[in-house]
Specification:
147 residues, single chain
Length: 147
């Protein structure tokens, strides 16, 4: 754990130095029991131990994600704006920069692997249609010769 000073805002527009505490993922992973539950959501660390009994989805949902990055699960559920606002009160720090996963820009087609195989969606139906066309033509030309 490391604490670093960072600039923040007190809500009045004036900059105030607020310390940012960084946690390593190994340290977060240790907090995965009923006594202490930490989650990582979008690079921020939350201590949700006090929220365990209040969570609408039940404590099992939080326990499954305890001590790990729960960003994908959090977004998959589609939490409301109120839930996102409520999350702020459980914030205790950020994940250490060395432990953060690099963000990929999904708008860049060179970085997006799903578009690289798009041709296969078109080539097989085209080849199949051409093959059926040749078979159809062959069948009817051979029938006309035999009659």
């Amino acid at each position: 754990m490391a604490t670093v000073g960072g600039s923040g805002s007190d809500g009045k527009g004036q900059g105030v130095e607020t310390p940012v505490t960084y946690y390593r993922l190994e340290e977060v992973a240790k907090r995965n029991s009923l006594k202490e539950i930490w989650l990582v959501i979008h690079g921020r660390v939350y201590d949700v131990t006090r929220f365990l009994n209040e969570h609408p989805g039940g404590e099992e949902v939080l326990l499954e994600q305890a001590g790990a990055d729960a960003s994908e699960s959090f977004e998959d559920v589609g939490h409301s704006l109120d839930a996102r606002e409520m999350l702020k009160q459980y914030y205790i720090g950020d994940v250490h920069p060395n432990d953060l996963k690099p963000e990929s820009d999904s708008k860049d087609p060179l970085k997006n692997n799903t578009c690289r195989s798009c041709w296969s969606y078109w080539i097989f139906p085209i080849v199949g249609a051409m093959l059926l066309g040749f078979l159809y033509r062959y069948y009817y030309t051979s029938e006309s010769r035999s009659s």
